[in-house]
Amino acid sequence: MTLQNAGWRALDVLFPKRCAWCGKVLGFTADACGCDKSREAVRLPNAPLATPDLEGEAFFPIGAWACFAYEEPVRGMILRMKYEEEPALAQPLAQELAQKYDASGLAGQFDVLIPVPMTPKALKKRGYNQCALMAGALAVHAGLPCEEAALRKTRHTERQMALDRAGRLQNVRDAFTAEAGVAGKRILLVDDVFTTGSTANECAKALQAAGAAACGVLCVAASLIE
Ligand SMILES: [Zn+2]
């Protein structure tokens, strides 16, 4: 055993990582949010999500994939990552995205990862964009560039969770703009929560308007509400 391994083993004993669902000890170096058995219960199929109903409007992404149903404890992890200054949670959630990326056969389908952006003002207030943290980690796994600056959010929007379907569609309409550098590229958007699909759709519309060849979206969790 190397000294470093011995160190990890000691940390395992002192501060073991636990399954977010059942509390089972996973070990300090575990890279997923929970044990296989618990994750299986909330894991979504590797197939793309059903195309959402955007009130007659076409859904621009070629597909949307999500790791989990938007339920506890994933819901709580995402909310803590976003609103309670726990950016470190982006790391285990990015590991889940990486597993989903592999299991869903997304390798080879996309050229560039782009996180769903925040406005500069919102980014300054939070200090980080959790989607950019996850996309950066996923990019290393996927061996693809992460081009955070290629998509910009140009105006403030309300929190989607507080709105109904029609309100969400309206809230994010034309809120994004993409740089010309995306032309001809197949873009995989990285987001935390997929609900009505309206945010992903607006991002995809902006990317397509800038000449992107295709756009898909990979999310941590999907809440397919009515
Ligand atoms: Zn468990």
Structure description:
The mean pLDDT is 90. This protein has helices at residues 3-14, 36-42, 74-83, 90-103, 120-126, 130-142, 165-172, 198-209, and strands at 63-69, 112-115, 151-153, 176-178, 186-194, 214-222. By secondary structure, the protein is α/β, with parallel strands linked by helices. The chain folds into 2 domains: 1-40, no CATH class; 43-222, 3-Layer(aba) Sandwich (Rossmann fold), CATH 3.40.50. The protein is built from 8 helices and 6 strands. Helix 4 (90-103) packs across helix 6 (130-142). 37% of the residues lie in helices and 15% in strands. It is globular. A 4-stranded parallel β-sheet has the order 1-6-5-2. Strands 3-4 form a two-stranded antiparallel ribbon. The chain binds zinc ion.
**Main sheet makeup:** 4 strands, parallel
Provide a count of the helices. 8
Spell the H/E element sequence.
HHEHHEHHEHEEHE
- What is the CATH topology descriptor of the largest domain? Rossmann fold
Structural class: alpha/beta
What share of the residues lie within helices?
Answer: 25-40%
Mean pLDDT score, rounded?
A: 90
Low-confidence stretches: none
CATH architecture of the largest domain: 3-Layer(aba) Sandwich
CA radius of gyration = 18 Å
Measure the end-to-end span: 54 Å
